[in-house]
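[READ THE FOLD]
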Amino acid sequence: MVWADQGGLVIAGEDTGDDDDEGPARYGGYIELPSDAFKMDQIKAEMKDGVLKVARR
C-alpha cells in the first residue's frame, strides 16, 4: 500500500510467504515531503518483479 498524508508518503506491505513458522513479514517506510512537493493526481506507483516504483508524472 502507498498513500500520502499531510507530511509525506507512507509505504506499507506484507509478504505472507510459505514459511508457517515465522508468520508474515511486514515492512513499511515513510518519506517526509514538503506539502507543496507533490499533487496527488501527479503520483504514479507501479510494482514490477518485487520492486515498487513511485514517480511524479
Summary: The chain has a mean pLDDT of 81. Residues 7 and 14 are 23 Å apart (CA to CA). The chain has one domain: 2-56.
